[in-house]
Design goal:
about 300 residues, alpha/beta, eight-stranded mixed β-sheet, about 40% helix, globular
Length: about 300
Amino acid sequence: MTRSKILILSLCLLSATWCKAATLPDTVVIKAHLKTLTKTPRYRSHQNIDQLNQTADYIRSVFKKYADSVYIQEYTVDQKIYKNVICSFGTQHQKRIIAGAHYDSCGEQEGADDNASGVTGLLELARMLKGQKLNHRIDLVAYTLEEPPYFRTEQMGSYIHAKWLKSNKIEVYGMLSLEMIGYFKTEKKSQSYPLGILSWFYGNKGDYITVIKKFSAGKFANNFTSAFKKGNTILTKTFSGPTSLPGIDFSDHLNYWKFGYSALMITDTSFYRNKNYHQVTDTMETLDINRMAKVIDGVFKTLVKI
């Protein structure tokens, strides 16, 4: 084999290795994002508008490295301007998939699992989606004002976004909410449920990720759930239930349900597992980065496939 052929082969192998690495979650990058989002001068609560804006700027700066387009959706609450940060891939497609996570925290605490973990998922997805061949347009949306006192109000960033989609007659295949994806426990009785009987079916160890949807969830939610499970990147359990069941609508997907979109939530089950929920102990040091990376990997592979 000639030197030129060896050089060409070496370059091809290096290129293939780089492409593969670019589509795998990077735990070093994940940790860096979590640190930037949580170890801040002030906390990401609605009272600290300057810190929320700094967080929005950081999210935007990461999105701009990878996405086809990036823009800010501003709206006003109590004479303060709040921001959703949105980036898009596969903009040649008309029908879109929304993947969202809220970047605000509840009160004076870091909010690592809730919900810096979900936002970190979006940031890693942005890196991994760059240059991918997609079947749909994918919009990654970082929302503000998911937490109290705005939860279940029309001031939620996800309500503003879902309403905009509907008002502008945007064709949406479906939506997925990344809501607390970093906390896992392998000990017995580390997992609880809104109904005790569910432990008979799902077990009592908090070592899995959950895909949650409502009854009559719609085509997107059903197809995404099936593909995510088949991807087998992490132990996954699925749950369908009525919207009246406590916890099933405790995130931004609820607003897409309101406007008739097929939507679901990917979660470590929040306070049913993570006792640091809305506490000062919700720090990045409590998260399982390796399992979190597997969740992100599963979402990426599913978004590319469906």
